[in-house]
Design brief:
mainly alpha; two-stranded parallel sheet; 2 strands; 58% helix; elongated
Length: 83
């Protein structure tokens, strides 16, 4: 069972790398719901400690949309400050 968990965990990161996601470029990478709690020990063992595991998907969605909204607001303010 441990080998299967490790193989699946590694496949997640292979998928992200294959699709050009550089997780080191983010301050915080949030994983939530599903079977993510099964991988907490693997997250803890990784060298890059910018991962957070949330079991409450609703909270994760709110935090994600908050970050997205803040990013849009900063872009909008930069655009209007140039005029």
């Amino acid at each position: 069972m441990q080998a299967i968990r490790k193989k699946h965990f590694n496949s997640i990161f292979t998928f992200l790398q294959d699709n050009k996601f550089d997780l080191r470029a983010y301050d915080k990478v949030i994983f939530t719901d599903g079977v993510v709690h099964l991988y907490k020990d693997f997250f803890d063992a990784r060298e890059d400690k910018n991962f957070e595991v949330l079991e409450d998907g609703q909270t994760a969605n709110v935090r994600g949309y908050n970050e997205f909204g803040n990013t849009l607001l900063v872009r909008k303010n930069k655009r209007y400050s140039r005029h």
